[in-house]
Fold this sequence. Notes:
By secondary structure, this protein is mostly helical. The chain has one domain. It is built from nine helices and two strands. The chain has a two-stranded antiparallel sheet with strand order 1-2. A hairpin with a 5-residue loop joins strand 1 and strand 2.
Amino acid sequence: MSDAPRLDRRTTLRWMLAAAASAPLGAAAMLRTSGATPEGGARRTGAGALGYGTDPDLVTAYAPGSLWPLTLDAVQRRCATVLCDLIIPADQHSPGAASLGVVDFIDEWVSAPYPQQRADRAILLPGLAWMDAEAQRRYGRDFAALDAAGHDALCRDICYVPNAAAAFRDAALFFARFRDLTAGGFYTTPAGTRDLGYVGNLPLTTFDGPPPEVLSHVGLT
């Protein structure tokens, strides 16, 4: 967005940390820790604790919608797709968020049966509806159909909660949560980790220790 606070990759690192604190890295991670049935049904487990069934088969490649019915319809997905790419657009380092499947991640997230996901569903679905309704009110078109200037003007009003007018506060809270989930989804893809320069979880034939400049920086030379 032209003169609005820029949603650049390095800024979204801060948002990713916020998303990571409240959002496990997708349905499989949530299932591994909580246990769920594909239908998302809760059941009683040992000692009377309320659970979600057995763990999934972790060697199975689950497709979107395999674990529970998905939520977003075609109109919501179009809005979410455009918004994802406004938040993390393609650049010289990697593709945009939408092309890496972040919309599928968000759809899976708001469709899950867990308390955090249910809470986010109550924020994201009305927020996506607001984006289209506000775009229709201002321009007579859905948000996805707006040009760059329309996207810029609408997002400018909601892209930073402290600066949002009272009339836009709920929409700004939606944008903040959608932005966090977009960043969390993007930076846990292979392309996102490469964009960060993350080199963990890779086999090494040798390890020579931290480079001298790092040791110097932390006072260990």
